[in-house]
Amino acid sequence: MPIRRTTRSNPVRRARGQSIPLLALMIVVLVGMVALSVDVGRTFSEERRAVAAANAASLAAMNTYIRRPAGTTNTVIYDSIVNSLRSNGIEIENNPNVRMEAYYLNARGEPILGGARITRDGTVAPDNVAYIQVNLEGDVDTLFARVVNQNQLPFAATAYAGTCPPTDGVYPIGISNEYISGNQFRNPGDANGDGVPDNNWQVLQSGAYRGYTKMRLYPAENNAPGQFGWLRWLDGRGASGANANSAQELEMALTGTGTLSKGFMEVTPWPAPNLPRPANYPERPGELNVGDWVYGSSGFTSSSDRRAALDAHIANGTRMVLPIYDVVVGQGSNAAYRVVRFGLFVLTEYGRERSRPYMDFIFLGDPDRQGTACSATPPPPENANVVRLTGSVELWPEYQIVNSQRFPIQYVVVLDVTGSMSMNFRGEGSYTQNGRLVTAQCINDPFGQRPADPNCTGQASNAWPVREERRIYVAKEAVRLLIDQMNMPGNRDYDSSRPNDQMVLIWFRESVPTSNRFPANGSFSSDPRALKQAVLDAGSVNGDPYLANGGTNGAGALYRAQQVLQSAPRTVRYNNRDWEYRRVVIFVTDGLSNYMMNVNASNLQGPHSNASTYSPQSGPNTHRCFLLGREVLDNAPCQTTEIGGRFQGYDRPITQMVQVASQIKALPSAPQGRSVDVYVVGISAVPTLGLQDGVASTPRHFYMAETLQRGPDGLNNVDRIMLAINAEVEQGPCISGSDGEWRATIPGNHFQSVNGLSYPNVGEVILQDTLTNSVYRAPIVAGTDGRVRYTFEQIPRGTYRMQAYLFYRHPLDPPTARPRMYSQIFTGAASQSDMVVTLDPSSQAGFVATIEQNLRLRLDGNVCAVNN
Q1: In the CATH scheme, what is the homologous superfamily, with its name and number, of domain 386-397+741-859?
Q2: Domain boundaries, the chain
Q3: What's the CATH class of domain 409-609+650-732?
Q4: What does pTM read for this prediction?
Q5: What beta strand segments (E) does 238-335 contain?
Q6: Residue of 783 and 450 predicted with greater confidence
Q7: H or E segment and range at residue 257
Q8: Which of 364, 318, 367 is nearest to 163 (CA)?
Q9: Which of 53, 104, 125 lies closest to 850, judged by CA?
Q10: Can you list the alpha helix ranges (DSSP code H) found in 134-221?
Q11: 595-632 pLDDT, tens per residue?
Q12: 713 Cβ neighbours under 8 A, 6+ residues apart
């Protein structure tokens, strides 16, 4: 019998608690997911709040910018952003978790030139801002994600605000930019020789618009150039449904606040094939902006309704916003005008003069800021791997000076003989105390290290004991050295074949009587011995030629110089030939003008501009000047009308001084076509305000000897300044001339086609990728205002070797000189043929990733070299 095997199943028993680890892991995952969702939710909520706050902040900043009064600084704009963010629950100050950056952008959404970043830097906000960008970046502290070592999560927001363009108060009358200079009508001169400027040009002397310019403008007729043209906003049918070029449409556009709000059309296609067309024209379709072309209108001068509209503007004193154009193509209704800016004008009269229509306008400068801020949405970037590279290009202009003719020279030396000139270059003097001579700081230390000693008045009685180190000694001896260099009988190298050089010496304190000059009758002298003695006698105290006393009336001294030059003949007949004098003023001073000039006083002395001439109840600036007390005498801004205000009808001393210097610089001088050169020699570290940028003809005409430095040849640095001025005035053989400052513009008449370049293309920037050796090129282009820039609209991120060159023809170069190439990149310490740039922006400023790489180019070679 078979044996049956029985299979029996034995179930496996699970150990108690075996599922607990799995449940714990699941709980951890669930908790982590909940934690992550909570933290991500908080971060998302914070980012939404940041987006809303950034939008509000950009709008607040733009509204503050639009409504800003003149002189508003970046600090005010920055604070409006901070305050807006704070009101929306985001604190950026003393908060390491939130970072904010803000930028000014132009109409293309690019960072503006020369100061795009908005900070509390205190500089005045620029005028060419179209958008304000606010970037927020931050971190949110996590609550639960810390268990997975994620302590913070990032958030970011970017917002843009622009200006809703004003449309009311804009009228279809285009003004030619040729007749505009800054915020004034350009003086047209006296072509008809009747003794007054043409076109009834004048500076208003009274009334609400005192100080503004007024001018009569005539319309363009057929192909004849005109000073204004009639415009229209639309092509085809107008706002009323009538022909856009009809009398009805023009009359409507001139009536009330105008019709620009009903629509605008740019001239398309691009109407001037001989001018470069911007790639993005028009930048803002349907809005009237700088750079747009506007249609012309026939004008319909006989319309009575048009006259009624103009009469209403005259009666109401309407401030009319008018386009200003630089180029017009075509004529009549087929004309197109290119807008380069807008201006604010007041129409005062219109009519016909010898059958020619005219309109009289007062020009008030840039328009009143109008409109409100609007949020802006930039277009999406086409390629995140490319950037936009752009920059301004400046050059250091040089030219060749060839001494083809030696002109006789008329020098007017204006010498400061005030009390501070008795001090040394640090403002130190001396006084007696307990029978002992004490040296002390007698006037404020020009280097700001030591205050003045109250026991020292800074006059002749407190003179520095070492005579040869006094400012008055150094200045007088330098002037005497200048006299030795002049072409006068008795001087070394005297040349009798040409007329003698001449000089008048004027010295000044707080008063400048006519007796403070040599020769006394105001005529010029060519006697070097008499002139050198006059220098010693000028302002001497108790017979000591190297002591000085009194306050500073620089405007009065320059006024005397102006009188001398106006009354003196500027030509001479010598050796059967008519010669023209090269006329030069050298203003030698050691400090601030602090006496106002009174032209009605025989000694030209007006009030002393000190704390007592400022009212504690006046504006914030003059109030600050009042609080300075005695120190106001050494505070340059307080001696300007802009900061200090007027006193009893007088402008402040520095303002007066600059005004008189401007009149001197307008006087004629040899060679023909030049004006009087004004040099300023600063003895010690004088404040440059007004001297360098107002009195001196150019900044390079300003020299300053901060300290006294003597060389082994016995000459000091002030002597060398005088010798340098004289050498420049005499114009030696081949000299490398320079403007003494960087130039950012190249006008068309400063360029000559060369190497295949044709204006406005004046040069090129070349980039070579250091990894791939790929080469990219972009032209250097002069804009409608002459400003020079280059732009690579799209270039791959990376590292590049950069080279650049441009051609420039200096108007002072001799006719035989060719355009010169500027290709040495100046980096602040040295010039080199190329430089390395890395294109990888860390923070995007503008609608696209934009890198601003400005260039400064020096001349490649020497202007006096044969091949240059």
Answers
A1: Carboxypeptidase-like, regulatory domain (2.60.40.1120)
A2: 21-163, 173-370, 386-397+741-859, 409-609+650-732, 615-646
A3: alpha beta
A4: 0.46
A5: 293-296, 319-329
A6: 783
A7: none
A8: 367
A9: 104
A10: none
A11: 999 999 999 999 999 988 988 876 777 778 888 777 78
A12: none
